[in-house]
Amino acid sequence: MPERIDFPALLAGHTVVIEMINSGDAGLPVLTQLLRVAQPALGATGMAFVEFGPTGGRVIAATGAAEWALGRPLAVDDPDTVCLLSGPRVRQVRVADLNGKLAGELAGSGLRRMVVSRAEIGGHTAGSLHALYPGDDEPGPEQQGAIGYLASCVAHMYGDQSGLPVHGDGPVVAALADGLAVVDRDGHVRLWNPAAAQVTGQPVEQALGRPLPFPLPPSGQVRDHRMPDGRWLRITSGELPGPGTLRVVTFRDITDQQRRDHDRELFVAVTSHELRTPVTVIKGYADTLTDHWESLTEVDRRQAARVIGQRANELARLVDRLLSSAAEVGPGDEPPNPFDLGEALRAAVGDLPTELRHRLVLRLPSDLPKALGHRPSLATVLTELTTNAGKYSAADSPIEITASVDGHLVAFRVSDRGIGIRPEHVERAFDRFWQGESGDRRGYPGAGLGLYLVRRIVEQQNGWVSLRPRTGGGTVAEVRLPRG
C-alpha cells in the first residue's frame, strides 16, 4: 500500500469526471469512471460502490480486483450490510472482522482490508464506497480522507438525480408517510412536516418561505403530478378555517401504484403483440392444410406441420415466461444441493433449439468444482441467456459458454458478439418488460422477461447475475453461484 496518495492524478481524473457530467453524462458511466480514476491514485487493488435501498443493497459499479462482485446483492439483514450501515461514516475494515458471506468471497479473492465510506444525503444512506487492498497494512488517514471526499461526491450525484439511483427502490425516492404542508395566499410554505421532507427530499430549511415544489390543485380536488425525478405524487388541498387565507396540502408518493398500473397496461400490450405473431402463423398454416390438403405435396404438408410445431413451442414458452413473471419462480423451499455445474451446463445445452445449439462454443474446464444451488433451474437460466445472446447477435456469429472458479464462487459466462449493451443499461436490462429504446422493441421482438426471470432464479440460490459489455463488441452475461 502506498504511503501517500497520488493527488495530482486524482485531481486530473476527477476533472475528467466533472467534464463528463458537464457534457451531459450521468449515472453508471460517470460512477464507474470515478472508481477507475480513484483506484490507481489510492493504490487500491479494486474499487466498488454498493447502492442501498429499503430492501437491501447491490454492487452497481466495480473495478479491478472487485469486478467479480458487480451485480452482487446484499440483503438488508445480512451481517455485512448491518456493519456497513452502522458505525462511523468513514473507516477502515478488516475483511476477517466481517461475519457474512461477503467476507469469505473477499478473502477468496485475496482482499484483506478495505477503506469504506457511506454516501449520505440528509440522513439517508444512498450507498457505500469501498477501496479494497490485499495486504495487512493499515490504510493511512489520507486514504480515509480521500474515500470520504469521493463518497460525498457520489452523494452529490444522488442529490442532483444525475441518473441515480439505479434501482427504483433507492433511498432518494423512498416515501415513508404522507407529507403535510400549509401555504399562505401567495403559495409560500408556512409549515413543512418531517414526512414532507422525506417524500419530496426537501428539508424544512429549504422549503419554508418558498413556493411548493409541485402545482397546487384547487381546494377540494386531487391531482396526480409527476416530479422531475420521475416520481409521482398524489396531492390534495383544502382551505383552513379562520380569518387568514391559508391552505393545507397533503401529498404522498404513488410511484409504486403508477408503476403497477403501467406494468399492467404494458403486460396487456406486450402479450397481445407477442401472442399475435405465432397465433397468426399457426392459423395461416392450419387453414392452408385444411383448404388445400389435396393440392399440397407431401413435402409441403410436412413443412407446414413443422412450422406449426415450431410456433406452438414458441407460444408455449412465451406463456410459461408470462406466468412465471407473475408468480414465484425458482427452487422455492427446496434446500440448495451441490451439483456438477459442467455436466449440468452440457445437459442444458443439449435441450436448446437446434439453430441455437449449432452456434454455441462450449469451453468448460475439466476440474470445475461443484456449485451449490438448484440444478433443474439451470436449464431455464441457460436457455434465457443464450436465447437473449442469439437474438441480439448475427445468426452466423458464435455464442461462447465458459466457466471458472473464483475463491468461494463458481461462475459461468454466456458471451456474444452482437450489438452490445450500454453501461447505463446493465442494471435496467433486468427490469420486467424493459427492452431498451422503443426502436429495439420493433427490431428485436420479445416480452422483456428473460433477464428478469434469470435474476429472480439465481438470487433465490444465493447467487447473482450481471451484464457487461464484451471487449471487442457484444455482451457478457455472468452467473455466480456458491461453491458446493
UniProtKB/TrEMBL annotation:
Keywords of the record: ATP-binding, Kinase, Membrane, Nucleotide-binding, Phosphoprotein, Transferase, Transmembrane, Transmembrane helix, Two-component regulatory system
Matching Pfam families: HATPase_c, HisKA, PAS_4
The keyword Transmembrane appears for this protein: yes
Domain of life: Bacteria
Compartments where found: Cell membrane; Membrane
Domain PAS: 172-210
Reaction(s) catalysed by this chain's protein: ATP + protein L-histidine = ADP + protein N-phospho-L-histidine
Domain Histidine kinase: 270-484
Enzyme Commission no: 2.7.13.3
Membrane topology listed for this record: Multi-pass membrane protein
PANTHER family registered for this protein in UniProt: SENSOR HISTIDINE KINASE GLRK, TWO-COMPONENT HISTIDINE KINASE
Protein name: Sensor-like histidine kinase SenX3
Native source species: Micromonospora tarensis
Upper classification of the organism: Bacteria, Bacillati, Actinomycetota, Actinomycetes, Micromonosporales
